[in-house]
Amino acid sequence: MNRKTFILATSFVLAVYGHPARAQFASEGCSAEVVASCPACATCDAQRTLDGMDTRAPVPLLPMMAEHQKRNMRDHLLAVQEIVAALAADDFAAIEKTAGRIGYSEQMGQMCAHMGAAAPGFTDKALEFHRTADTIAAAAKVQDRAAVLKALGATLQTCTGCHATFRQQIVDEATWNRMTGMPAPSTHP
User: Fold this and answer.
1) Judging by DSSP bridges, how do beta strands 57-61 and 166-170 pair with one another?
2) Would you kindly state where each structural domain of the chain is located, as residue ranges?
3) C-beta of residue 136 within 8 angstroms of C-beta of residue 92
4) φ and ψ at 90, to 5 degrees?
5) Gap between the Cα atoms of 8 and 4, Å rounded
6) Apex 135 CA angle, 133 and 140, nearest 5
7) Based on CB atoms within 10 Å of each CB, which residue in 3, 45, 48, 119 is the most buried?
8) If DSSP codes are grouped into helix, strand and coil, which group holds residue 10?
9) How many CA atoms lie less than 13 Å away from 147 in the CB half-sphere?
């Protein structure tokens, strides 16, 4: 946004919201509902404070991408739970099948690359998770309980390592396009 457009937009927002703090926060991307509901846009201010405390590297994502990624991660966690339950029952076939759900595939690789397009290092970490999960399936295939546990531990270590390094950052389409050099996707990745 050039300076003239910014001044016009801020003037418009100031006229609509009638309050300098509201105009400032509205110009920074807060929703009209949030800006209108609090005089100094405390919600946005609190979010900026939290973001300032979080030293992890941002993974810029559009809202639909962030939701898709969170759903995938919840399914990964569910898969780990199923693997642990199957291991307790010595059900190696179930372990192998479930580990396959979180293992590497070309489609998963493309999705990880797309999600990490604006976050250096993220794609490598994500792919490491899926490839490490493949070692769980390999150990289950030969019914090696100790190797399954070791592979599961290594897989969980990739999870915690990635979460310790990266955090989601929601961006708009223009920011996504600028950061990635790609057009924003129109559907879930």
Assistant:
1) parallel
2) 3-53, 59-168
3) no
4) 55, 35
5) 6
6) 105
7) 119
8) helix
9) 14
Radius of gyration of the chain (CA): 22
DSSP 2: -
Residue 128: name the closest of 158, 94, 108 by CA: 158
Q: Which residues contact 83 (CB under 8 A, 6 or more apart)?
A: 95, 98, 99, 136, 148, 152
Could you tell me if 136 and 104 are in contact, meaning their C-beta atoms sit under 8 angstroms apart?
Answer: no
Euclidean distance between CA atoms 14 and 20, whole angstroms = 6
φ, ψ at 133 (rounded to 5°): -60, -30
**For each of the chain's 189 residues, which pLDDT tens digit applies?**
444 444 444 444 444 444 444 444 444 555 555 555 555 577 778 878 888 899 999 999 999 999 999 999 999 999 999 999 999 999 999 999 999 999 999 999 999 999 999 999 999 999 999 999 999 999 999 999 999 999 999 999 999 999 999 999 999 999 999 999 988 877 544
Handedness of CA 66, 71, 72, 73 (dihedral sign): positive
Q: Give the CATH superfamily of 59-168.
A: Cytochrome c/b562 (1.20.120.10)
Two tokens, residue 53: 């405390």
CA distance 97 to 74: 18
